[in-house]
Amino acid sequence: MNQYPEGKKAEMLKALELSLGIVTTACKKVGIERRTHYNWLKNDPVYRASVNDVEEEAVDLSESKLFEKIMGVKVLVDKNNPESGAYQVPPSDRAIIFHLKAKGKKRGYNDRTEPVVQPKKLGLDLYEESVFEE
């Protein structure tokens, strides 16, 4: 017989949602051991899918907060003029850079530099005709 009724799993899912997926915090709130949570994850595909949903919601929340940092928070100075806004919180350069490094890699926004191979160092002369002959 299972030590915890199905209601404990539902409580754990709610606690995970409230703790943004932090397992230790949720387990303490529900009164179960971490190992119980991981056993449920391993053995119950419905529970595992629900935990994955909670984790995705936490990522969505983080992304929405990141976009707030990227856009800044603007307040209207004159309600009749939508262009009269002033920033209550200005856009964050760090948030913009972070987003570009994470999502703009294909456009060259990354910290990594790709090694440049020097043909002469490999003993090749790419301009010799024999290199191009089949």
Overview of the molecule:
With 134 residues, the chain is mostly helical. The protein folds into 2 domains: 1-63; 72-111, no CATH class. It has 6 helices and 2 strands. It has helices spanning 6-18, 23-30, 34-43, 45-71, 93-103, 129-132; strands at residues 73-78, 81-89. The protein has a two-stranded antiparallel sheet with strand order 1-2.
Structure characteristics:
134 residues, mainly alpha, 2 domains, two-stranded antiparallel sheet, 6 helices
Q: What is the arithmetic mean of pLDDT?
A: 83
Question: Beta-strand level of the residues, as a percent range?
Answer: 5-15%
The total count of strands amounts to 2
- Note poorly predicted spans: none
Biggest sheet character: 2 strands, antiparallel
Q: Give the spatial strand order of the biggest sheet.
A: 1-2
Q: Topology as H/E string?
A: HHHHEEHH
Secondary structure category: mainly alpha
What value does the Rg take, in angstroms? 26 Å
Helix content: 40-55%
Between the first and last Cα atoms, what is the distance in angstroms?
72 Å
By DSSP (H or I, 4+ residues per run), the number of helices equals 6
Total number of domains? 2
Shape designation? flat
List the helices and strands and how they pair.
Elements: H1 6-18, H2 23-30, H3 34-43, H4 45-71, E1 73-78, E2 81-89, H5 93-103, H6 129-132
Structure, briefly:
With 134 residues, this protein is mainly alpha-helical. It has six helices and two strands.
